[in-house]
Amino acid sequence: MGTDSITITDNRTGKSYEIPIMYGTFPKYGAAIRAADLREIKASEDDFGLMTYDPAFMNTASCRSAITHIDGDKGILRHRGYPIEQLAEQSNYLEVAYLVIHGELPTKAQYDEWVHNITFHTMVHENMKKLMDGFNHDAHPMSMLIGTMAALGTFYPTSKKIGDADVRKLEIYRLLGKAITLGAMTYRHTKGLPYVMPDNDLSYTGNFMNMLWRMAEPRYKPHPVLEKALDVLFILHADHEQNCSANAMRSVGSSHADPYSSVAAATAALYGPLHGGANEQVLRMLRTIGSKAKVPQFIQEVKERKALLMGFGHRVYKNYDPRARIIKRLADQVFELTGKNPLIEIASELERVALEDDFFLKRKLYPNVDFYSGIIYEAIGFPTDYFTVLFAIPRVSGWLAQWQELITDQEQKISRPRQIYTGVAIRDYLPMEKRGT
Ligand code: ACO
Question: Is the torsion defined by CA of 341, 345, 346, 347 positive or negative?
């Protein structure tokens, strides 16, 4: 048995360096060397030292984290050790939010206090309505959410004291509580409907539905099947370790910005079509394909690199995304109430054809969380450009968990990658008249 280190020989100098290997809970996914140790490897005394080059962080761990574990080969997702299947089946979104942020499932008393505090922070300042009204009727809901989320921080200047645990606790309540309110306001604004204020007797998702859909009735009653379905979808979107938006949250948070600014930045990262914006693109893709018969032709176009199969592929999963499996089952329950969304036929056919094709098998491309979620959202009645808001709202809990972990991690500093400079070394400034034509 060897030691837990590697020896690197620098062929430029003939010198050898022993570098320790560190591990996480699962050695298969957690073995790493500290990049800073490589700085000892120098070609000469005044050399800066060796760096690693890793565009898009394909093989770089940016933190040690105890929140979420993904086994991409086996298609496993666990929060704080609990399998996502058990959480989706037996828990509820606010309990999962507590779990990802605090690390443990709450006791009854902790849960009641948690739900109470989030529920009583759902109201937003009246000026938020004026801010929202500044957007055009056809503004994208994600752009409105990004803008108003950042603006919300201006109402809570003490949120800048990110080193104070009590301040962080309060801001976590506020951000979770107000995420549904802002999300619903973007929807009402698009529809030209008056904003609905929260009803604190309802559940988190029930309250969200109330703020989305209440019309003239004195009290809104959420349909229990849809309330439950939305809650499960919220659980499935709570956290997903160091993805693009979590990385944005940590990167902006590392400069000690207030958490509203960091959540706005994370929301912006989620908006992109390669990340959370994919659910919207999946629906547009399915509509463009139009029928089951056209699936083989579309798959051919993907293989010829003329299109991407949206909702397929993942940086970490090289197997079926477990969330996609749960969503597919959930779709049947929702369709019993709403009627079947005909796009499910095209999606299932796409999955069937793709998973029999070498192009996708060789690259280990499987459905991800976004492949089936949009079909449910559409059946429930959400407009296509609203889908990513339904991803962003529950992801606020994951972003806050990542942020809290970052702020309390003694090893973390401001996020600041290195670069390998490839430009001109030095030259003298040339006055314009001497630059030729
Ligand atoms: N359709 C067709 N080909 C694909 C797809 C896809 N959806 N995804 C990956 N590939 C191909 C790539 O072209 C590449 O092929 P090559 O090796 O012959 O060049 C290979 O599979 C590996 O793909 P990469 O792009 O290197 O994988 P990466 O980890 O960088 O990207 C990503 C992951 C962005 C998710 C990618 O799979 C993709 O664009 N998928 C579609 C968008 C999507 O569904 N995004 C949502 C992801 S889940 C989430 O963020 C919530």
Answer: positive
Q: Which stretches of 5-114 are assigned E, i.e. beta strand?
A: 5-9, 16-20, 68-71, 76-79, 82-83
Q: How far apart are CA 350 and CA 342, in angstroms?
A: 13
Distance from C-alpha of 283 to C-alpha of 276, rounded to nearest angstrom: 13
The full DSSP string for 249-280 is HHHHHTTT--HHHHHHHHHHHHHSTTTTTHHH
The alpha-helical segments, DSSP class H, found in 22-140 are 27-30, 84-90, 93-102, 108-119, 127-133
- The residue whose CA is least distant from atom 32 of ligand 1 is 314
Task: Render pLDDT for 199-223 as a digit per residue (tens, 0 to 9).
Answer: 999 999 999 999 999 999 999 999 9
Among 247, 309, 359, the mutation site with the greatest number of ligand 1 atoms within 8 A of its Cβ is 309
Given the structure tokens 């989030």, which residue do they identify?
A: 118
Identify whether 237 is a catalytic site residue.
no
**Structure tokens given for 361:** 């098998």
Q: CB–CB of 28/35 below 8 Å?
A: no
- The whole-angstrom separation of Cα 152 and Cα 142 is 15
The token pair that represents 415 in the structure block: 């996020």
If you average pLDDT over residues 306-329, what whole number do you get? 93
Which atom of ligand 1 is found nearest the CA of 368? 48
Model confidence at 1: pLDDT above 90? no
Contact at 8 Å (CB) between 323 and 214?
no
